[in-house]
Amino acid sequence: MTTAAPDTIAPVHPESPHREDAAHFVRWLLAHLTLQPQESPPDALLELPEADRLAFAGQQRLRLPLSGRPLAGQEPLDWDSRFARWLLDRLARLGPALHARPRRQPMSVTEVTGRLFAAYDVENGQVHLAGCQLTDHPFLRLSFPGTNDDPSTRHVFVAPDGSSVSDDLIPRLGLNELEPITQLPPRLEEAAIRSLIAAGRRIAAKQSTARDPSAAVVDPVAVTIAWVRHA
């Protein structure tokens, strides 16, 4: 339980129906570092690059939980643990935000054509989609830590114009199933990223259970730009 002086307002956790098991979210973050733990129930075994072993007293391999809270011998996933501090430091080197895309979105006009024309039969000819191009639009996902009662990661989504993304639109856009972009993501100016983050924090504060309007929301543990393609 967080305690504070009478004149100090403790940061609050935003409420969100979009929650993710902390252990699963950690493995998603590791994928941005191109680190893939091997599943060996009940462990996810992570082989550390040699340069990172010093942070873990020379250990070559870490035992992470596959889901839920860590068991005995597994690395604690609390965001103030040595593992989390190492992970967040490594991710910070990638820039002010991670980059991802919806896992199932079409990546080319050809894929769009296949989906649109799948219901049609064409005899002795070909079809193509004229005048169509795909453009990337940056949505933001702020991922906040959970609480002692519910350690699940809480996601808050922000539209390119800084508004909140409705709950029904999130699965339609594929924002609930993101895959990392580890090479050559689209570019977005850092000032625009900061503006979206500020908008997301305001949205998160409104979604908190705190009734004090001056209460600040806890810091997100990860900021992700989700590039959604629009035809």
Write up what this structure looks like.
The structure is a single chain. The strands form two sheets. This protein has a six-stranded mixed β-sheet, sandwiched between helices. Strands 2-3-4 form a three-stranded antiparallel β-sheet, with no helix packed on it. It is globular. It is built from five helices and nine strands, in the order βαβββαβαββαβαβ. The N and C termini lie far apart (48 Å). Strand 2 (38-40) and strand 3 form a beta hairpin. Mean pLDDT is 87; it is low at 1-6. The protein has helices spanning 22-32, 82-92, 109-116, 169-173, 190-206, and strands at residues 19-20, 38-40, 43-47, 61-65, 98-102, 135-144, 153-158, 178-180, 222-230. 23% of the residues are buried. It has 231 residues and is an alpha+beta fold.
Structure in a nutshell:
With 231 residues, the chain is of the alpha+beta class. The protein has helices spanning 22-32, 82-92, 109-116, 169-173, 190-206, and strands spanning 19-20, 38-40, 43-47, 61-65, 98-102, 135-144, 153-158, 178-180, 222-230. It is 23% helix and 21% strand.
Task: List its traits.
231 residues; alpha+beta; six-stranded mixed β-sheet; three-stranded antiparallel β-sheet; 21% strand; globular; disordered N terminus
